[in-house]
Design the sequence.
């Protein structure tokens, strides 16, 4: 008789406090759920827009905007693209200097004419909108929906390019033009369809707008070289032959159309010569656009904006190399052009501050392209939690920096007196102070706009027209700002009036303030005006007292301005500097990071001075 089989039932006991999913897995799942929510996306998008707007205040350390406005006014009013570059200065300068920004300068002047300084902000907003549209078009090519990964990428780009993109001048257009040629390259390569025919049109506009077109030429030349090399040795990642030929043809045409400018082919050859000229090394000592970013990765003290940008650029390079490595390991996919351009432009972005305008766009399109070509776009979806963290962290850092480290309190031209020496210029013109007038390098840019033709400048940020003498003389005074240096300058140029940007050139202010031949007759938030004592009787004592008293600054909250004013008054009247210290203690926010340090320095200086 067959035995019946015994069926035993296995009972699994679930421990109430034990989960089969690890803690990191549960955290990831929660973050993924949050990152996918539409309401969270919209909230973060709103916060991102607000944060970026706050991260882009008006600046008082670059006045190129103003001489570009004057150039634009001249071009538009006179219907010409030629200009006598020496006409704005009373010192010897080069009239034939070739500066090809007639289109860019005209556009910013027209924006200014329509909506004053706010019009320039609107113009930059339109440029940023154009970049977002390029990203959305590329997203559509990939067949994807907008989510936090795209938002994180755009936020990182906005922060990375900020130190240069914050200035309202023709360079803004270079950002859009470069983003456009990068978009065209990756889109054409992705869909294997020729869009390179737009390159010549972009470059003829770009060349007449801003000198950044040279970087664009480097990009398309590098792309052509890389793609040709890939076609010979890495055919699996190269363009089809027909598309490569069209890239070559339109690259050559892009070079050919460079003759379509007011100076013809000579401008391009001379421009390249100036770029390679060793004299530029002198300029690099004093122009922030030439500084390298490696030093800001581990600075002794945190440097607002620059440290943020340096680290973002490094993180961008790491992520694109990671995407390349993943593609190689999974699909044995090697795209030497994409990787090579990322390495070259990353190096450029860290070597020269202005280079940060370019690499972020190459990085963004490269990562998406590599993921698409290696069938790994699902990884982007998996990165939603990481993108959420990046956005929150970046928003936190940027807003914290804006509150604790930002010294500019002007947005969309509010508090505009904290950005330009408008009052000092008005004082000189109202009192008809005697010509010729000495000014610092930076202030000359604003003075060209506000004072010409009644007053011409000693020097200005155009730099190149002065390389035959005035620039060297100013440089010597800059390097040795004492009574001897001032006397040498006066004996050569015989000026009686001086306007100095005291926030950025406090040492020059001190040279005038301590000289027995000069007297401070006016000071505002940005600039100090000095008059030679040989003509001081043209201004009454009451007028001087009224316009140099510290009481006029009792409502100022900007720490950068108050700290600078303390230095101005310290050389003139220590009692007035004590008032500035009092205003600083009362007005400057407790959240400002350097507040305690500034107060300690001012207290110590006053104590030392009183001891003597």
Sequence:
């Amino acid at each position: 008789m067959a035995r019946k089989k015994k069926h035993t039932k296995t009972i699994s006991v679930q421990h109430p406090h034990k989960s089969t999913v690890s803690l990191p897995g549960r955290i990831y799942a929660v973050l993924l759920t949050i990152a996918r929510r539409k309401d969270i996306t919209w909230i973060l998008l709103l916060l991102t827009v607000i944060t970026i707007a706050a991260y882009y205040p008006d600046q008082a350390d670059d006045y190129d905007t103003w001489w570009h406005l004057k150039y634009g006014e001249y071009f538009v009013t006179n219907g010409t693209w030629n200009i006598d570059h020496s006409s704005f200065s009373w010192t010897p300068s080069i009239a034939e200097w070739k500066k090809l920004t007639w289109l860019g300068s005209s556009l910013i002047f027209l924006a200014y004419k329509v909506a004053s300084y706010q019009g320039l902000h609107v113009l930059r907003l339109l440029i940023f909108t154009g970049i977002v549209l390029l990203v959305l078009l590329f997203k559509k090519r990939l067949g994807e929906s907008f989510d936090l990964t795209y938002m994180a990428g755009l936020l990182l780009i906005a922060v990375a390019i900020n130190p240069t993109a914050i200035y309202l001048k023709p360079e803004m257009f270079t950002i859009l033009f470069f983003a456009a040629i990068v978009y065209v390259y990756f889109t054409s390569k992705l869909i294997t369809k020729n869009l390179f025919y737009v390159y010549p049109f972009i470059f003829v506009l770009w060349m007449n707008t801003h000198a950044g077109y040279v970087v664009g030429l480097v990009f398309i030349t590098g792309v052509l070289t890389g793609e040709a090399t890939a076609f010979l040795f890495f055919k699996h990642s190269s363009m089809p032959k027909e598309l490569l030929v069209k890239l070559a043809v339109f690259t050559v045409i892009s070079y050919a159309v460079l003759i379509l400018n007011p100076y013809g082919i000579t401008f391009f050859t001379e421009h390249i010569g100036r770029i390679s000229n060793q004299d530029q090394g002198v300029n690099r000592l004093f122009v922030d656009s030439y500084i390298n970013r490696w030093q800001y990765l581990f600075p002794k003290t945190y440097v607002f904006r620059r440290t943020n940008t340096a680290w973002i650029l490094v993180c961008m390079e790491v992520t694109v190399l990671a995407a390349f490595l993943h593609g190689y390991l999974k699909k044995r996919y090697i795209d030497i052009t994409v990787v090579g351009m990322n390495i070259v432009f990353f190096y450029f972005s860290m070597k020269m501050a202005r280079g940060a305008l370019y690499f972020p766009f190459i990085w963004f399109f490269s990562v998406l392209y590599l993921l698409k070509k290696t069938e790994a776009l699902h990884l982007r979806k998996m990165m939603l939690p990481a993108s959420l963290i990046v956005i929150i962290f970046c928003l936190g850092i940027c807003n914290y920096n804006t509150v604790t480290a930002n010294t500019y309190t002007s947005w969309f031209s509010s508090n505009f007196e904290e950005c330009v020496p408008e009052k000092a210029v008005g004082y000189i013109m109202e009192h008809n102070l005697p010509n010729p007038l000495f000014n610092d390098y930076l202030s000359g840019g604003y003075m060209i706009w506000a004072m010409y033709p009644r007053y011409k400048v000693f020097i200005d940020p155009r730099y190149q027209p002065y390389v035959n003498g005035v620039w060297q003389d100013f440089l010597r005074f800059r390097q040795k700002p004492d009574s001897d240096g001032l006397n040498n300058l006066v004996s050569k140029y015989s000026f009686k009036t001086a306007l100095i940007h005291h926030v950025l050139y406090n040492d020059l202010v001190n040279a005038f303030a301590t000289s027995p031949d000069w007297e401070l007759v006016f000071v505002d938030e940005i600039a100090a005006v000095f008059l030679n004592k040989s003509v001081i009787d043209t201004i009454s004592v009451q007028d001087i007292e009224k316009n140099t008293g510290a009481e006029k600054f009792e409502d100022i909250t900007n720490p950068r301005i108050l700290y600078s004013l303390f230095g101005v008054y310290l050389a003139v009247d220590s009692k007035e500097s004590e008032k500035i210290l009092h205003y600083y203690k009362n007005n400057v926010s407790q959240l400002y990071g350097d507040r305690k340090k500034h107060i300690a320095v001012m207290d110590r200086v006053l104590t030392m001075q009183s001891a003597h």
User: Anything to note?
Assistant: Residues 102-142 form the longest helix (41 residues). Residues 1-14, 278-282 have pLDDT under 50 and may be disordered. The chain is about 60% helix and 5% strand.
